């Protein structure tokens, strides 16, 4: 994929223009969601509108806007009012909020994150732009191991994983609804990762498709992530 790291815009409208012109935003639904969920609430200026991944603390990142646009396009036809989504490694809460916006007023999006401080940061970010999403249950933020999914709200029409797993966690496949879609980067290291699409048909069959090469931080447990940064456990 092309490197858009040097592309900087003045505001969210200019960013949407860039993503649409570059072909990452293809549908009006994705355009509307990303325009409505302004990145300035999730990553501080002047980094809000740079089309590149940004560090958000504790070894986590917020993906580049073009990657978020690509993922939302892959999921948009499964995001229907009243549906359910699971965002694994919800981090800043940005994509969680986009998913909730696209699911409509009767939908539920679960954001699961194993670093409590990041979950608190996501809550604060969402409260700046769409506090009612939290108040009325359109978004629920959970502290936990996303590799296990979140069984109390399963099954999910869409599942997004924002970090690379060595292999697809079976609990996520199990918690996918019939007709649902899972998007996950898979690979042992950052030099050999592939974005994978997994669909569960209405008959329960699993269809797997390799989409493209990507680079994501690893999907690990909390202690491993913190040890890699030289930090102690937060428990």
Write up this protein:
Helix 2 (28-36) packs across helix 4 (94-103). The protein is built from 8 helices and 9 strands. The longest helix has 14 residues, at 116-129. The termini are far apart. Helix content is 30%, strand content 24%. By secondary structure, it is α/β, with parallel strands linked by helices. The strands form 2 sheets. A 7-stranded mixed beta sheet has the order 5-4-3-6-7-8-9. A two-stranded antiparallel ribbon has the order 1-2. Mean pLDDT is 90; it is low at 1-5 and 230-235. It has helices at 12-21, 28-36, 65-75, 94-103, 116-129, 131-135, 170-174, 222-227, and strands at residues 54-57, 60-62, 84-88, 108-113, 139-143, 156-161, 176-186, 193-200, 206-214. This is Protein-L-isoaspartate O-methyltransferase. It catalyses: [protein]-L-isoaspartate + S-adenosyl-L-methionine = [protein]-L-isoaspartate alpha-methyl ester + S-adenosyl-L-homocysteine. It is found in: Cytoplasm. Keywords: Cytoplasm, Methyltransferase, S-adenosyl-L-methionine, Transferase. Pfam families: PCMT (PF01135).
């Amino acid at each position: 994929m092309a490197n858009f790291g040097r592309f900087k815009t003045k505001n969210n409208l200019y960013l949407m223009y860039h993503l649409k012109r570059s072909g990452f935003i293809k549908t009006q639904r994705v355009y509307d969601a990303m325009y409505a969920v302004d990145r300035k609430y999730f990553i501080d200026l002047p980094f809000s509108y740079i089309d590149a991944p940004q560090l958000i603390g504790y070894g986590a990142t917020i993906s580049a806007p073009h990657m978020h646009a690509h993922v939302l396009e892959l999921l948009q036809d499964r995001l229907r009012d009243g549906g359910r989504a699971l965002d694994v490694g919800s981090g800043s809460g940005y994509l969680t909020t986009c998913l909730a916006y696209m699911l409509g007023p009767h939908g539920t999006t679960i954001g699961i994150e194993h670093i409590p401080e990041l979950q608190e940061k996501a809550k604060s970010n969402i409260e700046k732009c769409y506090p009612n999403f939290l108040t009325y249950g359109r978004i629920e933020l959970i502290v936990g191991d996303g590799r296990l999914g979140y069984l109390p709200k399963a099954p999910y029409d869409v599942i997004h994983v924002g970090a690379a797993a060595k292999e697809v966690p079976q609990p996520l496949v199990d918690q996918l609804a019939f007709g649902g879609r899972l998007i996950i980067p898979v690979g042992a290291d950052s030099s050999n990762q592939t974005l994978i699409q997994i669909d569960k048909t209405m008959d329960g069959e699993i269809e797997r498709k390799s989409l493209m090469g990507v680079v994501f931080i690893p999907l690990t447990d909390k202690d491993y992530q913190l040890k890699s940064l030289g930090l102690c456990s937060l428990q």
